[in-house]
Amino acid sequence: MDDQTLLAAIGAGFVIGASAIVLAAAPLAGLVTGHGWASSTKSLPETIILTVSRGPGAVYDPAPPTWAFWLVVALLLVLLIVAVALLLRAFGGRKPHLGGARWGGKKTELEMAVPEKPEERPDRITAGRGQHSKKIVAVIERSGSAIAFGPPGSAKTTGLLLGNAAEWQGPCVLTTTKAADLEAIYNSRRALGPVWVIAPAGLPGGRTTAHWSPVDYARDADSAERMAEWMADAAQKHYDPRAEPWIAQARAILAGLLLAAHISKGGIRAFREWLALGKDAVDHVRAILEPDYPEVAMDYAQPWLKLHEDGAGSVQFTLNVVAAVYRNKDVRVVAERTDFSPEQLLDENGTVCLVASPSNAERYGPLFTSIIASIIHAAEDRFEKTGKPLEKALGCFIDEAGNALRYPKLPTTLTTGRGIGIAMLTIWHDLAQLASRVGQDGARTVISASTLRMLLPGLADDNTLRYFNYIFSKEQTERPTHSTGPSGSSTSTGIVETDLLPVDKLREIPTFTAIVQYFNLPPIRANMRLTWRDEDLRAWLARPLPPVSLDKAAAPALEAHHG
User: Any transmembrane segments, and where (predicted)?
Assistant: First the structure.
């Protein structure tokens, strides 16, 4: 349709509508004023023209009052305008979907909507408020996991991590880079169960930190082997399958050292000393292990006795990375004893907060990984024993996941966690950071198994932007083409494919906004629920609670004191 035809159609529609109003107004005005039904003996064109130019008395008999006629015309015109507006609102903005990818609208947001009250949406990780419905949008299924990509400054902590941790109704473990963030959620978590705060570098105001020791965890051969595996895996700064043979040998040595330190009651001090001695500690450690754990003693000693010099050097390098964590005095103080167990966390609906500044997050990564892994294992073990998912799902909210969680089993945990009752929210700077921890294949599994995927403001990594540009695919749209010729101007439309989320739009996500895609639903835009802005979240954090202070000696997070 060319421009002239379109204008002609609009004009014809206006003339027909106005004529219908004029024809209906006079009879209606006559009935309303008590003059009876007015009729005209003229033709329709004459009736319309004479009524408008001379008034209804020139055409109709009995003639209605002129004032009543024009009042009815005005009312009918208003009704027509309202009806057209409603039709345009209901149907005018809805162009048929031409195919390809598409944005989710209010309908998608309502599918993802959850109740406002946290008690009525247990075990659900939230993403924010849908921009169309203003409803809280979240994972639909119980214990579904989520992943977010956002650099520092993207409001990932105040807009995503803290709100989810504060509202989580089950046991919880979280990492954060700012001790001050705990002020926002401490009382909220304390109302649900005990809270243990582990901050090797200390807490503001001279507050004390809780304690946890990998040596105390290694009570027998099996637990020592598990802890050794987590510690050895966390020693890798980057995922490298070629290092697996040396990591396996390091696990055997670490298991022996952990168990020997536990048996001898030497604690973390003895563990660190034997790590530093390396091969020179073999005879002493083996003597401690052999009476009760001869197989552990043999596995511990074998790498030192059988490996060639280069192999032993590679193993020692891994051990040195583990030892470096405990060279720090603050870490040794934290690891000198244990104030809680993973089972206690689950039984008492507790919370573990792991705090490390950005400069310390990488250094404390192996310690934090061991704590998180032990809690995840406790949940998995309980599921294996009962055959039922946890009554209250375990929430793992991991900020700075690239530094705080060096856990190669993350893809497996995310794949199986929903059935066990483990929900994880992991926050990464970009795709490269995720791949450096679990490899390229593992990264794809992590994204796939995290059914709620979020992109936060400030993304700049080219690979991340292009990956999600590809994932969100292309939409089919109509593109108008204007042309001018001897017969006038005309407009035609054709269907073309365009990126649903172009790279520049991904790079320019507005502040405090998240692009959210859940499972198999189209993506939506959500406003992040900031702890200092979202009214219902602020009300939840400020709800009346028994007075609890981080300085209170009886508070579980502070039961352990420095030195």
Answer: 67-88
